[in-house]
Design a protein that fits this description.
The structure is a single chain. The chain is of the alpha/beta class and 275 residues long. It folds into two domains: 65 residues, Chemotaxis Receptor Methyltransferase Cher, domain 1 (Orthogonal Bundle), CATH 1.10.155.10; 188 residues, 3-Layer(aba) Sandwich (Rossmann fold), CATH 3.40.50.150. It has ten helices and ten strands. The strands form two sheets. A seven-stranded mixed beta sheet has the order 6-2-1-7-8-10-9, with helices on both faces. The protein has a three-stranded antiparallel beta sheet with strand order 3-5-4.
Amino acid sequence: MSSDREFVFTANDFAHVQKLIYEHAGISLSEQKNDLVYSRLAKRLRKHKIHRFDTYLQLLDNTDHPEWEEFINALTTNLTSFFRENHHFTRLSRHLKDNYARASTDKPIKIWCAASSTGEEPYSIAMTVASAFGKLNPPVKILATDLDTQVLAKAEKGIYQFDTIDKLSSLQKEHFFLKGNGAQAGQVMIRPELKSLITFNQLNLLSNWPMKGKFDFIFCRNVMIYFDKATQYKLLEDFSKHLNKGGLLFVGHSESFPEASRIFKLDKQTVYVRC
């Protein structure tokens, strides 16, 4: 613990944070996250003009306190970009073209992005589906959920700095984005046709899921690394119940679940097939 810190942050304070975030969000914080937790929550202390961590944490003893939402938002990691781990979108595109694009059915494809963050991932999914079908209004319904309400609000707006799409092709930029003018110069907006394919909702993965029916694809990438093994397996079981047989589950590059071989078969490169 650094003596240069503005606030005293004891081992007991950190243990209290670990307990709260695990009980309410299922996130396991290692000791290596001490500095990260301090820097993120210190902003909340300043906001409330509180000078001690134990005083701040007492606010959360009331589970209905509005600070709970800010506490969880502060400790949720939201690193993302368009077409991050691009091989997943290549795999999705190939599967769509082979199994859906030429089928004569009006039944919509259902896709769940379980950690949408600021929207880059669900919009990348929408772009992939639109490209596979060759039109901006493909037969798809995309559900995008996240625990963090602040990033969901940004995602729903669909407005980004121009440099966030630097690595996209000229064709993608032209087909899927509108350039901002005047006060919005230097920004781009997702085309309304693409936005209309996505529904954004707040969801805690550890709570009861309200969704009806099953999905054809589920993206839950770089999320389960924050959960312990028991929670991971419980989530995988729940995903299997919400995924059609033969449906694909996309997980993060550092995530592997050999213990779930009864319900998911590893395809390749962090893509699992529902057994």
